[in-house]
Amino acid sequence: MAARTSPTFRRRQLARRVRCLREQAGLTQERAAAELDMSTSALSRKETGEATTSVHEARSMMDLYDVHDPGLLDLARTASRKGWWRAYGIEDRGYVDLETEACTVRDFQVTNIPGLLQTESYARALLKSGRLAGSNRQIENDVAVRIDPSPTTG
Question: Any transmembrane segments, and where (predicted)?
């Protein structure tokens, strides 16, 4: 069995919408899974974001739940895309994904300059001094991700 990864922000959004639609349709996971020709555990993984819901599955769910939601299809298309930070060797850790999808970032730190305002040298020094300091390559990748001024999503 493949190692589980943390669901990305878009997968979590998709998962919440899929679950909400099922609940609004008044179906149990067991009943919906049977109607969708999948196991209950497979549907559960899709509703928690552990597994991505494909566009085909999203269409089937909308048919079953008697809902038309083009936004759900768009979300299903983008949920499985790798994040731009992967090019830097950074795994899906959560903070980059959340910052990328955020329209507002509020940060309160007593001792450090917020990540989005850090200079390259400050970020490098901070990352080297931290408890979770990794290899030089990992630190440089983390700095590059933090400093990248205009990431593109998807």
Answer: none
Which H helix or E strand runs over 151?
A: none
CB 116 within 8 A of CB 107: yes
Q: Which domain holds residue 38?
A: 9-79
Asked whether 8 and 79 are in contact (CB, 8 A), the reply is yes
User: Cα–Cα distance between 11 and 49 in angstroms, integer?
Assistant: 5
Does residue 21 contact residue 61 with C-beta atoms inside 8 Å? yes
User: In this model, does residue 71 exceed pLDDT 70?
Assistant: yes
- Are residues 21 and 72 in contact, defined by beta-carbon separation less than 8 angstroms? yes
Write out the DSSP string of 66-122.
T---HHHHHHHHHHTSPPGGGGGT----SHHHHHHH-S------SSS--GGG--HHH
Tokens of 13: 């959004």
Query: For position 64, which CATH number holds?
Result: 1.10.260.40
pLDDT band at 107 (very low <50, low <70, confident <90, very high): confident
